[in-house]
## 1
Amino acid sequence: MEAGAAPPPFWAGGPAPGQTYIPRAWGQSDIPRGTGIGSAALPAGRTLSPMVTGTSVLGLKFSGGVMLAADTVGSYGSLARFRGISRLLKVNDSTVLGASGDLADFQHLRQLLEQMVIDEELLGDGHSYSPRALHSWLTRVLYNRRSKINPLWNTVLIAGVYGGESFLGYVDMLGVAYEAPSLATGFGAYLAQPLLRAALERDQLPSREEARELLERCLRVLYYRDARSFNRYEVAVVTEKGVELEGPLTLEANWDIAHLV
Amino acid sequence: EWTAEPVSTGTTIMAVEFEGGVVIGADSRTTTGSYIANRVTDKLTPVHDRIFCCRSGSAADTQAVADAVAYQLAFHSVELEEPPRVRTAARLFQQSCYRYREELSAGIIVAGWDPRRGGQVYVVPMGGLLLRQPFAVGGSGSSYIYGFLDATFQPGMSRSQCQEFVARALALAMVRDGSSGGVIRLAAITEEGVERTVLAGSDLP
């Protein structure tokens, strides 16, 4: 996070305490400007448009833990430019995080988180961040960035098991945050979420194998219907024993219906 | 009107790793709109003895960032008392490109050789993401050759195979992309040094 040196941007250009106030001409600034449209009068570093993006991330609770799944592609507009990117991040032994949206912002977030985890280990007090704590922290970070009109253009799912309880939470670039037994970002919210919820309608949570199969099925549906998806994916499973990252695996697609047309 | 257009290295740039180094290549066309301002541009810019960057996007932006990184690397290398890592150079590019992402129009490939990790290729596309890849392409011309690259690339190519691969790919892109053209500038960076070649006119594959 940026050290709180300068005042927030919308107060910039105002009177310094004790000085005569000489208003600056509209649109002028002391930060070098580029050719960005609409970036005049905005300080450096604002993500106004995502560049390399990741599509849906899926999350599902099962009996014994939680799992996340995401494909491994970074899209540059409609081009599937980077086909081996991991969008699932193991934060610590009890938590994983999956991100969609701008991947440069995700890398920035990853650096922040990695440093936080290191700092916490250095404290050596035996405590580690719980998934719920991380979710709360991330909500604050993303909400504050959006309030400065400088969002981290990501939608993030946090999954973990802590103190015997499993956790699955969602935070997006606006700071909207909630928890649920099944979650999906992007296209997944429209296509996968109904499938995930149907599986949860029974009394008990699905077993690990059922959940794993369901996530794969959802990823396949997304591969059929999301034009920015890819058939290589990763899965992260969190249980009391810790975090297991599987992948990259390849989805098999069924094109039989093509012969019926 | 072309005087109002920014000067851009609408481009094709490419870099490939091999055992012992990297091969980098670029076209040589700089455009202002559709006028070719410079037909013999050198887009392979050294930022240190064994570390180069391939520049695409705005000519001004990329030159400015490359100059800054070259300065930082020179300083860092003196402090370190050894050649800087390619990853460090790439990280320096990424820091500028991410921080000023809304102001800059810069797609950069950083490639070179260092004693610790050998030949490496890193890509810093627009937006400021940092990624290491066995090979990377960038610039407007790159769109036309993704198919060729996917079909032809093999891991574990030798230096001369890489040079041929890069030359063929760039030639194909330069034909189809109006913003790319001129000559192909190649450079092979290894422990021994940097060997630069130019493929022009009839030399083009």
## 2
Amino acid sequence: MEFRLEAHRIVSISLGKIYSARGQRGGLKLHKNLLVSLVLRSARRVYLGEPGGECGLPPRPRDPPPPDCERLRRGGYRPLGSEAAARGRVECPAESPRKRSAVERGQAAGSPGKKPRREAEPSPPQEDMETGNVASLISIFGSSFSGLLGKERGAAEASEPGQVCCEQPVLRSLNPWSTAIVAF
Amino acid sequence: MTFTSPQKIVLRVLYLKTNKNWSDIISTVEFNHTGELLATGDKGGRVVIFQREPESKNEPYNQGEYNVYSTFQSHEPEFDYLKSLEIEEKINKIKWLPQQNAAHSLLSTNDKTIKLWKVTERDKRPEGYNLKDEEGKLKDLSTVTSLQVPVLKPMDLMVEVTPRRIFANGHTYHVNSISVNSDCETYMSADDLRINLWHLAITDRSFNIVDIKPANMEDLTEVITASEFHPHHCNLFVYSSSKGSLRLCDMRASALCDKHSKLFEEPEDPSNRSFFSEIISSVSDVKFSHSGRYMLTRDYLTVKVWDLNMETKPIETYQVHDYLRSKLCSLYENDCIFDKFECAWNGSDSVIMTGAYNNFFRMFDRNTKRDVTLEASRESSKPRAILKPRRVCVGGKRRKDDISVDSLDFTKKILHTAWHPTENIIAIAATNNLYIFQDKVNSEMH
């Protein structure tokens, strides 16, 4: 539980950093934002109780998802926890960081309807379009976050912390950006 | 400099430059190859060069002090209209070229543009022109009755700095390091994802020698954090990554050195795993030893010495401030965990130095395994003051003058340090103050 609280706090702090990085003089600092997104990913994993977040911890039991997510599930989307559990893969932190992205890619690739690269890092605005940045951020946040920093797309409000919902196409129609930085 | 006991380290202040503006925050410090000149760059895009005064028999106590030699504006803020981004004028790195004639040359870089500057002295001027008078105004020709040969007369020393080359448009990402090759003809510049090789005389093109940008930016997992040419082998260079690895590359092997010749990395200690393990393993600086046999790296909590012949782990690891390991979350929150500390070798490669917080800097003697913590502060800035070793206490017995971890001032950080190439003289940049310390007891290298 303490881990989850700390993870929650770290997620909030990380989102705040990514948000404030956009207005920084000199442009986006790729190195710093990469590190922040790595921390965000670790914290998110712990917060969601995913295997690999804490070595050996089983996935958290899921509450019944809200109606939005029912719609998504009919579209072939599966909640994070169950998919990972189904795969039966437990990723220990003892593994070298280099292996982690390969494992994650494996996990992500198996889930239909999701972006293939879940552990994506924020793209530098220097080379990608604004929408590309947002897409990266969405794929980082995956399905449980509402902290969306892009202007074109609406932010998603998570109905419950940790609840699985909000596939990428759905986000456009949801709450505007101004109402959510962190939903928890 | 051997550390037989802490009392033997006697450092005195030679120069202290104080500035109060944000733009005066020193962002890089570099001695030239003889140690006669010391260059500093700041956030305002300025470069200040200090010159060591020759030792005088009349005033033996003032021997070898550094005074301002020249100041110039190297970079100005620019605006990239295409991307709507401001380009900071902050000087990220300065590197001196080996001196080949009476002039000195240095490279300075901000995030995007590298510039070659030539520093020359003028101490004579011609007098006795036929066509113009002393002020330069044209003479009335009817008053000229005879011809004279202009004569060179001494004048007050004037130091002139002129931009000789501007190496622009080579980098999409932020330049973090530059390094002059031992061939004295080429140099490299590294940004987050690419390293370019330039010829010092050619500005309109460069060769890309390392490119780690993935085809899909969402696959990005590591960036280049620092790079340096080998001091003797002009074909070898090293670059460090945000994942804590070092890659030694050989330019003879292929034109594009994406594939390393050697990969130096240490497996992570699972017992130290935390949310911030990746951040603290990111290498912020890499420096070859003067001998070329070793490399020194700095990550957030340690400095490590690597032997070029052993890729599996460093041969030495020194804890800079391990008491911060339990405070990583707070340091993440206040952004201190992203601070990039540099490291330095002394001339004989026997002592390594790096900065820390609270204006502390640390030195480690590789032979005796002793280390010392010193402070660059106002109290120690009085001329000929002797630096007293400091101690951070982490609970337990607390001695007088110890600082507790919770009292450390994290806004006072020493990121940039430099060591004279042959003598025990160090330059410490403490935010916007420059301290130069000299070992009074042993001014020659041991």
